[in-house]
Write a structure and sequence with these properties.
- The complex is a heterodimer of chains A (about 400) and B (about 475).
- Chain A has about 400 residues and is an alpha/beta fold.
- Helix content of chain A is about 50%, strand content about 10%.
- In chain A, helix 5 runs parallel beside helix 6, helix 7 crosses helix 12 and helix 8 packs parallel to helix 10.
- The two termini of chain B are about 35 Å apart.
- With about 475 residues, chain B is of the alpha/beta class.
- The chains are: A alpha/beta (about 400), B alpha/beta (about 475).
- Chains A and B meet through helix 6, helix 7 and helix 14 of A and helix 9, strand 4, helix 10, helix 17 and helix 18 of B.
């Protein structure tokens, strides 16, 4: 894994962020896949997806959030409270889920108690839970509201031309992400799921132009690979709650698997769908983000998501699916329950697993469960377990 | 789920409890007492309801009919619509659809049955639903998923944008049972033009869904009939809530539960109006005599989220025994424009305009968008018209001595902001307590434990010289 990618994954204030700030650039954080990042980019600012992998405690987060909620937004608040997001000039919180949308309330109140932890620009951004003509129209209105407020606060202009330029640049990222994704799928996977995920995560923490150049370079190397370079191991698909912890990927792959696909936030699931480049850019963004992102927050749309997951498993040659959720993430947790029923009925072995957000603290438990899944797949289909044996001999 | 629990159809079981309870109200005192000896699991609930006279009797009768309608829907060629308690059933009545309100059932199961509800709660998890999900749906959803209750023909859910846990339970049921699903989705604001336009478009979209499911067009006469009944019901509710301001409060605590039961089970039908008329009579009589609804008033408590329903309504009985007037919850505020708490804030309320079909539809859309929770927890808690505004307003109006929060462990939305609102209310001078009880699952924090915490809180904070609760 390249050093700059490793750094972007592990360090919030990575070299790209510092360079951007050093050049007088502004950075706006956002926590959810439903955020049309092109709007921030069109304002000449760097969109930065909020994460909290440096967290070692939730003492601040738990002072504002209650006890029975997802640890992801709680950890983001913790990081903000520890002033590790001091490089942010703004943050936009959206209602990806209930706990995430309350990051707006909790961060603001924490900001009253701890002056300086709330970025000078702070906005709440709402996303409908359904796709209809009127919800897309409403969402386009919400994007326009966001544009207005960014323009007013930062004294910038976000013209249609700038939006279109940003859309083109991010569409290029999406195409390249799709190419990277293809390199880790199927029998000829040349890129491990861990490395692919690291690239995907890094892309949320650096300017799109830098990211595109980096991906082109990486793809150049990957395209030279021969069939013999294909990674051995059971092909698995990882689905469920948000993950930005490549150690989880590494743990799974060290057990003898290759994660050939994922449907998690920060991963590749819906980052490859393009935004239309013709017509009104705001309407195009509204349509793309509301219609393409696949999340159980879009209630009543299970069949479409199941069809996508099943097709993805088939297309990428996944022999099994890991369905994980962060504890208290009922949206993914319960949808995983039905995915498990329906995937198993389709002959695809599944593993359901609950975890906490943050640095992998229960590696042993995760390992044991992955072993069990791989054994099950092995028993059903036989085949090599090279990596697993190698690992056990350590 | 234990085998013995799968022997009986849940809807039938509870209909028979209610039907028999209903007959008991006409019994002699001796007959009543003798029968109670044979009903250990719901004795206290029945006794509690019997103390409310005609109002309780009408509630039991109407609820028995509610179950009967569900049980006989198929034979009468009617569709069953599974709904959430944040959705007014009135529009379903207008379509001649039989509503099946999941949380209404859950509250009833929790109140009437000490043991069996845990199996139904857990059954949901057995089939893949998360154990951390809201118990409000899980109690009654278990039998539906297990095929031990009537199967819904479709689902209408009004909590996307308001409560993920709630909406997710209905989405799960739809996917698990392969039943058509329709959602009403709410933006984070209430009164601005974009929000109003969205409410109206979304409600009409739901009407199209109902037309598709029932094969019927909106019937203007039926729509008017339910709207007229809503107007009558709302007037009475507002009057009762006006009386609730008096010190001592002439409204029996349990009437708060009746009010939201009526709005979520009997909105727009005469059954609901009849219960309300009986309630108003009792309240007026208490007010004239200057007595508290529950006898003596020592304190006035506002429960700023929801109530507790388990173990034969012990919480309600404890409040009554201790002279704590229950002066409302988020669940009792439906935001009619003429509600006492809406004075000066009329634009936040809804009005029923019966002048045309369109105006009735718009009125129902406005009513839906003000249902409990739908109004208050859709946007930032301290934004205009939201939870903080409403809690401050009601606490002031109703002269609350203290506030207590209780909900379910599955409520991600309120658990993500309850510390903030509680702190704000304390700053405003209201002693406010966060309880870790679960309204529908007594295993989380048993009723005696959380009642003990209320008692301790009142004592430690020395609220109106509280000397301790009566427990026997």
């Amino acid at each position: 894994m390249r050093e700059e990618i490793r750094e972007a994954v592990a360090v919030l204030a990575n070299r790209y962020v510092m360079k951007w700030k050093g050049g007088g650039g502004r950075i706006v954080g956002y926590p959810c896949s439903y955020m049309p990042v092109e709007v921030i980019a069109a304002a000449g600012m760097l969109p930065f997806r909020l994460r909290a992998m440096e967290v070692v405690s939730t003492s601040i987060g738990s002072s504002y959030y209650g006890p029975v909620v997802c640890s992801f937004p709680k950890c983001i608040l913790q990081i903000a409270g520890e002033r590790k997001y001091a490089f942010l000039d703004g943050a936009v919180v959206c209602n990806g889920c209930d706990t995430m949308r309350r990051l707006d309330d909790c961060w603001r109140k924490a900001g009253d108690d701890m002056p300086g932890i709330l970025p000078s620009y702070f906005a709440h951004f709402a996303v409908p839970h359904k796709v209809t003509d009127y919800s897309v129209k409403w969402f386009a209105g919400e994007i326009r509201k966001l544009i207005d407020s960014l323009e007013k606060h930062f004294g910038v202009t976000i013209s249609d031309d700038k939006l279109k330029k940003a859309i083109t640049e991010y569409n290029r990222s999406r195409t390249l992400l799709g190419d990277i994704d293809a390199m880790r799928s199927g029998p000829d996977a040349f890129l491990s799921g861990t490395d692919a995920m690291a690239i995907f995560i890094a892309g949320t923490a650096m300017p799109a132009a830098d990211f595109n150049a980096l991906m082109e370079d990486i793809l150049g190397g990957l395209k030279k690979k021969k069939k013999k370079d294909a990674l051995p191991g059971r092909r698995l698909l990882l689905a469920g709650s948000v993950i930005d912890d490549i150690d989880l990927f590494r743990t799974i792959e060290e057990a003898g698997a290759v994660i050939v696909a994922d449907t998690v936030c920060f991963g590749s699931k819906d980052r490859t769908d393009l935004v239309r480049e013709d017509g009104d850019p705001v309407t195009a963004l509204a349509g793309r983000y509301l219609g393409s992102v696949k999340c159980p927050r879009m209630f009543g749309d299970y069949k479409r998501r199941f069809a996508f997951l099943k097709e993805l498993a088939e297309k990428t040659g996944a022999e099994g699916v890991i369905l994980q959720n962060i504890r208290f993430c009922d949206l993914h947790g319960s949808e995983n329950g039905i995915f498990e029923r329906d995937l198993e009925a389709a002959g695809i072995p599944c593993l359901r697993m609950e975890r906490e957000y943050g640095p992998l603290g229960d590696e042993g438990r995760v390992r044991m469960r992955i072993d069990a899944l791989l054994e099950r797949i092995g028993a059903a289909g036989g085949g090599s377990r090279r990596a697993l044996s190698a690992d056990r001999s350590r | 789920m234990r085998n013995e629990l799968t022997e009986y159809h849940y809807d039938w079981r509870f209909w028979s409890i209610l039907d028999n309870a209903n007959k008991l109200f006409d019994a002699t005192e001796k007959e009543f007492k003798s029968t109670m000896a044979y009903t250990p699991t719901f004795r206290a609930t029945t006794e509690k309801l019997s103390t409310t006279g005609k109002a309780g009797q009408r509630l039991v009768k109407a609820t028995a009919r509610y179950f009967e309608n569900i049980l006989t829907a198929r034979s009468r060629g009617k569709k069953i619509g599974l709904i959430t308690y944040n959705f007014s059933p009135a529009v379903l009545f207008a379509f001649d659809v039989v509503p099946y309100c999941l949380e209404g059932m859950s509250a009833f199961y929790a109140a009437a049955w000490n043991r069996g509800i845990y199996e139904s709660l857990d059954y949901c998890c057995e089939v893949g639903f998360t154990e951390t999900s809201c118990s409000g749906q899980r109690v009654a959803l278990g039998p539906v998923l297990a095929g031990l209750a009537e199967r819904p023909d479709f689902i209408v859910c009004s909590t996307p944008g308001v409560c993920d846990s709630n909406a997710n339970a209905f989405a799960f049921a739809s996917a698990y049972l392969d039943v058509p699903f329709c959602q009403l989705n709410y933006p984070p604001t209430l009164t601005d033009e974009r929000a109003v336009e969205y409410h109206r478009a979304d409600f009409r979209n739901m009407l199209s869904f109902l037309e598709e499911q029932t094969g019927k067009k909106v019937d203007v006469d039926k729509m008017r009939e339910v709207c007229e009944e809503i107007v009558k019901q709302d007037e009475i509710i507002c009057e009762i809530q006006d009386y609730q301001r008096l010190v001592p409060c002439p409204v029996p605590g349990i009437f708060n539960l009746f009010i939201y039961d009526i709005k979520v089970l009997f909105s727009g039908i005469k059954d609901g109006t009849d219960i309300l008329e009986a309630m108003l009579e009792i309240v007026k009589d208490n007010a004239e005599r200057g007595v508290a609804g529950d006898g003596v008033e020592r304190l006035r408590g506002f429960f700023y989220y929801i109530d507790h329903y388990c173990i034969q309504m012990k919480y309600w009985r404890w409040l009554e025994k201790n002279g704590i007037s229950h002066i409302g919850t988020m669940m009792t505020d439906f935001w009619q424009a003429n509600a006492p708490y809406a004075r000066g804030r009329e634009e936040e309320g809804y009005r029923m305009d019966l002048s045309s079909l369109d105006s009735m539809i718009d009125s129902l859309a406005a009513q839906s968008s003000r249902m409990p929770m739908v109004k208050q927890i859709r946007g930032p808690y301290d934004a205009p018209h939201m939870w903080l505004d409403d809690t401050v307003g009601v606490a002031n109006l109703m002269k609350a001595d203290f506030l207590a929060f209780m909900g379910t462990m599955g409520c991600r939305n309120t658990w993500s902001m309850v510390k903030l609102i509680t702190r704000d209310m304390e700053k405003l001078g209201y002693p406010a307590l966060i309880l870790y009880a679960d309204s529908f699952d007594n295993r989380i924090e048993p009723v005696d434990t959380f009642l003990g915490k209320i008692d301790e809180f009142l004592r430690v904070r020395d609220i109106r010289g509280w000397k301790g609760a009566v427990w026997k």
